[in-house]
Automatic annotation (TrEMBL):
Pfam families per UniProt: T2SSF
Protein name in the entry: Type II secretion system protein GspF domain-containing protein
Primary localisation category: membrane
Subcellular location: Cell membrane
Superkingdom, natural source: Bacteria
Membrane topology: Multi-pass membrane protein
UniProt cross-references to PANTHER family, sorted A to Z: CONSERVED TRANSMEMBRANE PROTEIN-RELATED (PTHR35007:SF4), INTEGRAL MEMBRANE PROTEIN-RELATED (PTHR35007)
Alphabetical UniProt keywords: Cell membrane, Membrane, Transmembrane, Transmembrane helix
């Protein structure tokens, strides 16, 4: 389908633009934590609304791409315009993308292959992506205080040196004029870089990674909603996961839910939906716990590296310069 076919009527374009409230996000917003997951969630939910309104999938991707904030949307739309089916286009794009895009690709393929309605599947994927974005923002919020303190402590030595120079104290001479001064300089710079590296490692350990919570349960629910049996749904999901490179990470939960449904004769779809919601809640709680722990753990590099670096670079050189000048004056 060509780009001209995407635009359709003016009314269709207006409806698509109204659905995509995320389209006008600023460059600053694009850099904020969780932006990509939020933008993709908005796009996926908008896509579901367009499909429910009767818009063809090929046209829906085109409408989204006209004002897309997420780079994957534009790439999928271009592949669709070149003749690829939407599911195949998503797979092509997801090869180099992260778990968020792979989740959408897998959800689309499973729903399409099983004959399930796409809209509920897309809404479930969007909810999972929003939870993931919220966790990323909470980690960033936990980091903001210690990060600001670290920046202040990094700048203070320079301020101290300038103030000492303004008072006529030769701090630079004290740092470079003796072995003790060079030792202070090397130790201060080393502590500063060590503190920054330590903080970066702590932040990376708290950052949300891995599969999107509950995606395996949602995929099974979509496959069963399309009329497949449990063995058939498992085969389909396995093929889709292998094709899209998706790691669901919740196979043990899925097995437990299916066993309970088989033994109790309970509706498996309801159990899957409940388990998926619980997985998302658990992931959100774990993310908040990581963020709270991070705020405390970041005090370690501040106390062990950043504060000593301030003392070594900002205080000790001034004392050394004053002692040196006093000794020189006595001679």
């Amino acid at each position: 389908m060509g780009a001209a076919e995407w635009r359709g009527s003016a009314g269709s374009r207006s409806a698509a633009t109204a659905v995509c409230g995320w389209c006008g996000m600023t460059e600053r917003g694009r850099r904020r934590p969780g932006f990509e997951e939020d933008a993709l969630a908005e796009a996926v939910e908008a896509l579901g609304v367009l499909l429910e309104a009767g818009v063809a999938p090929e046209s829906a991707w085109g409408y989204l791409a006209e004002d897309s904030s997420h780079p994957a949307i534009g790439r999928v739309a271009r592949a669709v315009s070149a003749g690829e089916r939407p599911g195949d286009a998503l797979v092509l794009v997801s090869v180099r993308a992260g778990p968020a895009v792979r989740t959408v690709a897998a959800a689309w393929q499973v729903a399409e292959a099983a004959g399930a309605v796409l809209s509920p599947v897309l809404r479930g994927a969007g909810a999972s992506l929003r939870d993931r974005a919220e966790t990323a923002r909470e980690v960033e919020a936990a980091l903001s205080g210690p990060r600001a303190t670290s920046r202040l402590m990094t700048v203070l030595p320079l301020v101290g040196l300038l103030m000492a120079a303004g008072l006529g104290i030769d701090v630079l001479g004290a740092l470079t004029g003796s072995l003790i001064g060079w030792g202070l300089l090397v130790a201060g710079v080393g502590l500063t870089f060590a503190g920054r590296a330590w903080m970066s490692r702590l932040v990376r350990s708290a950052t949300t990674r891995g599969p999107v919570a509950g995606v395996g349960l949602d995929l099974m629910g979509a496959a069963l909603a399309g009329g497949l049996s449990v063995p058939g749904a498992r085969r389909l999901i396995g093929e889709v996961r292998e094709r899209s490179g998706l790691d669901t990470g919740d196979d043990h939960v899925l097995d437990r839910v299916l066993r309970i449904a088989e033994r109790a004769g309970a509706p498996v779809a309801d159990l899957l939906a409940s388990a998926s919601r619980q997985e998302r809640r658990s992931a959100r709680i774990e993310g908040r716990a990581r963020a709270a722990t991070l705020a405390v753990r970041l005090l370690l590099p501040l106390g062990v590296c950043v504060l000593p670096a301030f003392l070594v670079l900002g205080v000790a050189p001034v004392i050394l310069a004053m002692v040196s000048s006093t000794v020189t004056g006595l001679r």
